[in-house]
Structures are given as C-alpha cells and as structure tokens.
Amino acid sequence: MPVPVPRQRAVPAAECGPAQVSAVALTEEAHRDTAALGAALTVLLVEDDPSGALVPELRDSAGRPIRVRTARNLTEAGRLLTPDVNCILLDLALPAAGCADTEDGDELAVLRQVLELAPRHAVIALTGSGDAERGAEAVRVGAQDYLFRDELDSRLLSRAIRYAVERKRSDTAERRLAEGRLRAQENRRLERGLLPTPLLEGAALRFAARYRPGRSRALLGGDFYDAVRTPDGTVHAMIGDVCGHGPDEAALGVELRIAWRALTLAGLCGDELLGTLQEVLEHERSDEEIFATLCTVDIAPDGRRAGLCLAGHPAPLLVRPGATPVPRLLPFDNNGPALGLLPGARWPRTQVELGAEWSLMLYTDGLIEGRTSPGGPRLGQDGMLDMIHRQLSEGLRGEELLRAAVSEVRHLNGDELTDDVAVVLLDRVA
What we know:
Layout: H1 18-38, E1 42-46, E2 67-71, H2 74-80, E3 87-91, H3 100-103, H4 109-117, E4 122-127, H5 132-141, E5 145-148, H6 154-194, E6 206-212, E7 221-229, E8 235-245, H7 247-265, H8 270-284, E9 292-299, E10 305-311, E11 317-319, E12 328-329, E13 350-353, E14 358-363, H9 380-393, H10 398-413, E15 421-428
Parallel strand pairs: 1-2, 1-3, 3-4, 4-5
Antiparallel strand pairs: 6-15, 7-8, 8-9, 9-10, 10-13, 11-12, 11-14, 14-15
Helix pairs in contact: 1-6, 6-7, 7-8
C-alpha cells in the first residue's frame, strides 16, 4: 500500500548550518587576536604635551618594551593609527577640534571622536586626580579604563594597557558572538522559507529532499523547492534556482516559493502560473539582470500522469521499477525561457505518462555542473543518469539515494561545489 506523507518538517542537507559557520568564523578571529597579542604592544598617546604624560620604559607581561607613538591632536592620531596599534592613551583635556559639542558642555567630546575614529582599538582615558567622576563617565561612554595623569608609574600603566587590550578583545569577541547568533537566527528563518514543510497530507506519495549551498561554508543559496496537494487530489511540486548566491538571492527565492504555493492553492498552473511568477520576480528583483529557472510538475490524482512545465530548467529524472531500474529524462523539447529574461514569454505544458509505480527526481543544475575530476569535464545530465542508475542498482532509495548523489557529486568535483544543490524526490509505490 502507498505510504501517506505525514505532516512533518522536511529535513534538507543544509550541512553547513548558520550556527556552525558562525562558530568557525569566530574561532578563526579569536586565533588571529591571540596571535596579535603575542607580539609586542604598540600604544598611541594622544596628548598636548606627550613628553610629560608617561614614564619611560613601559614593558609588557613578557618583559618586552611597549612601543609608544605620540600625537598632539586627532589629525596626527589619524595618521599614526595603523593596524599594529593596540591601545590609545587619550588625554581628556585635549580639545575636540571642530566639535560643536565642546561648546555645549560635552567634556567627553574628544573621547567620542576617538571612539568613532578607532572603534576597534582599546582606549584608556587620562584625567586629573580630582576628576574621578569624569574618568568613570569615560568608561561608561566606551573607554576600557581611566587613569590619573599625575599618579602614573611604569608598572601601573603597563598593567592598565594590558588589561585594556584584553578587555577590548573580550568585548569584541562577545559582540561578534552576539551578532553571529542574531545572523544565525535570521538565516534560520530565511532557510525555513527556502526549505518548507510540504503540504502533502493524504497524498499516496513519499517525499524526500536534499539541499546544500554552494561555496565553502556558505549559509544560503538561491535554490528553492516546494510541494503541495490541492483539494482535487492533484500533487504539485516545483524546484527553482535564482541566479547568484547569498541572502538577497535567497530572499528572492523565498518570495517566489511562497508566491508559487499561494498561486497553486488558488488554482493556477502551467503558463498562467509561470507568467504571474515572472511578474513577481520582475517587481522584486534588485537588478534587471537577475533571473530564475523553474521546473513545475502537477501529478494527477490517480498518480499515473503529470503535466510538466520548464522555464530554463533541466528536465526531471523518471525511474520506473524493474530488475535494473533505468532512469531517463522527461521530455524537454518545450522548455521555455527562464523567468525574468523575456517579457511576455510562454511556457508550454507537456503531458507525460508516469505509470503505476515510479520515482521522480527534480534537481537544480548544481547537481550536474560539478566536474567529474579536478579540472575535468562537467558531470552533465548523462553522467548524472549513469550515477543514479548505479546507485539504484546498489539498492539506494529515497533520502539515502539523494544523500549519496550529492555526496558523490562533491567527491567527483574534488572540492566544494561552486553552485547550490537542491534535489527533490517523489516516489509512488503501488
């Protein structure tokens, strides 16, 4: 008996999840920060009279001399603020040139300018011994610490510099982690739009999907898919590919997928549906050169035949049961143009016979554009047919088949695929 599809979330092969990527990126940045701290420290002193503000022979925790550069104003500071500077010592009495806030009573105007000039650097505020409140306010505004100018000694200042650099590094890592978590949450929401839960309750079909963004450690791609069953018993499925990679293309893919589902449930199909989707794309795309390919199938309630529309997309693969199942491509002679290329284009609907039992695989071109070896020819549709034929002969089916196909394509390519890959498999078992 056919196995009805339960209403559960499809699990795609988004093998490099957003949280995973953020952790890798943060670890690499932490390693770079640690390496930077292993080098000798460099300090930029911004003070009207640099000669009277510091005692000589500042040393770091390893006993190495701390290099000191001096600037008499913010203009000089901007020139001396090179990437190797670890900390800025700022005299709060320094006038904030060209800043109207000084006239309005903002005693920390010069600090605000420095924080804007050097957002990634540790800052220590220097103030008078009777002005602890101003120093504390400087820390609240963004400085890592404050010291009294007339109580400085080499040991105290060296320790304060090391502390300020470490605190800034810790604050930066914490902020990056928070930003990474926020991006991961946003990407998960966007990914849920690309990789939906199919609405196939009551359909005598099995559904499986596999998805992998292109490029190493990519978060999102422009591939999308969906499948729904309408009240008359027809099962509609589609797969599409927005040209390009990244969040903008992914967002457009989400819009097209949602529009497809809404229009399909409203009763549109074939040429009328694709024409409306082209209008959506033309209104929503950020550039007139952006286009999308699409493949749609509508499977009759009896499951034995289907209508096929192709908009610049590779034809699906059909497999019928047998001692040695042989996959073949559905007809693609009536392939229309990709969405967004030709105003007023038409997309013919081709009627195809499926039979009593079958497997139908929809895929994006990332599956066939990988190389058969590093620097070798592309796999192509013929290579894909041979690969699927062999995997079927090995007894692979459903999710296991899709996993093996994507894995082998990546292995043959010899490196991460440059294009996104999405694969959908619909099975009908008598």
